[in-house]
Amino acid sequence: MEIISVVIFALAALVIITFKKIGQPMVLGYLVAGFLVSPYMPYMQAIGMTEHHLHDCEAFGQLGVMLIMFGLGLEFSFKKLGKMGASPIVTALFIACCMGTLGFVAGMMMGLSQINCIFLGGMLAMSSTAIIDKAFADLGLSGEPFTARVISVLILEDILAIVLLVMLSAMAQGSSDTGQIMSTIMNLGIFVAVSLIVGLLILPTFFRVLRKIMNDEMLLIVSFALLFSMAYLAEYLGFSTAFGAFIIGSILAETLEAHKIEKVTLPMKNLFGAVFFISVGMLVKVETLVEYWLPILILVLVIMAGQAVFGTIGYLIGGQTLRASFRSGFAMSQIGEFSFIIATVGVNNKAIPAELYPIIVAVAVITTFFTPYMIKWAEPAYNTVSKMLPQATVEKLNSEKKKEEKAGGSSSFFAKFWGRIFDYARAETGNLPRHCSHDIPLSEVLVIEGDLFDGKTVKQVMDMEENPYFVVGRTPDGELISLEEIPHDYKFKAGDKVRVISKKFF
Fold this sequence. Notes:
With 506 residues, the chain is an all-alpha fold. Helices cover 70% and strands 2% of the residues. The protein has a 3-stranded mixed β-sheet with strand order 1-3-2, with no helix packed on it. Helix 9 (145-172) packs across helix 10. The longest helix has 33 residues, at 178-210.
């Protein structure tokens, strides 16, 4: 074992303990630790650290990104995304277009050429899913309602980034092949659709058959086999490995083992996720910060102010309340991994100057550092703006009725088709909703289906010493619903059937 590995993890442990003690998010500690152990520091060079070690850390960091996206998929629901209708799509397109335009204008003001400005706009258009997810977790906000909408928009931005990458690559090579762009969009749609259909039809049955013999160790190996297989397939087809990891995670979320998979992969996700953020911190050079401080400062302010304004407006247009829009928009005030990829494509094709890459890296690290603070500053900003607006306007913008109407799902053929696919997966496994509502009236007599709970009411089941998870099965009308989808004033009837699954199966 090299002394360098010992120094990196020892210093990282010391820094994150310090940050935890002073009440700061751990992601900031990882970035600072990465900066302190970078190969550009004289004391690290003295013990033999080179850029080769940085590349090793980046390789492990990419595994961290995959695991973060995989974990995100386990908490995500494409069915819920479908129920949101066009709202996340409108929000994602609005924010990406506004931030891309703002980046282009900022580039022109800094004296860059037109092609440089286009690439800069692309780099500033996308926020980082991995960074925001980690910030939400550090701040204890992962269960908040607004975070689900933010993640939905970020996933759509990741899809948009893949298309944008193809367009910018063509421009860098002096081509504008519309056919290639349309082919990429079509291939992306086919990849997602086929993956979801095949996965949802096969994997739930696969896990159900092997449930009796599958222990935690076997589940971990099978999960990683599926993760790497999908990541490889995504990369082979020209997409990112992180996107493939997210897709397989969202498929496994529809299986009964979703909770166990999340539990057994969590330590690996935390370890390699930490390596990813440390490797990002390693990329910062003190010389870069000193030499290019002005363009770095300009771009940091453009991103933070632009996302705060356009992000808030975008979520408001998408149907969020004013308060939720502020919290969502401020959370997106950074750039991440896709910005690095776009910058790399531009440098390799000589479409942008090489010195722009370290500037973007520095901007990404600084905006990542401020992300938790921007999330915290959203509430004071909302309070300030709400005091400036007429009270009637604030009440209207915070109306839940307005939010529900705009966020309503589509009743199209495609929405119903995907609903049936997800219902099949849930019916096949008896899968559980992520969050059950406990304030639903449960005193009515119910017919219970379950090995341990036959003939009991939900109230009796909930009062048992072994408090189980449970989901609603098919109602007398034939509709498959879960507790979280039932209105709180719904009155259960004796004919309603509830399938109860004990915690011991988890």
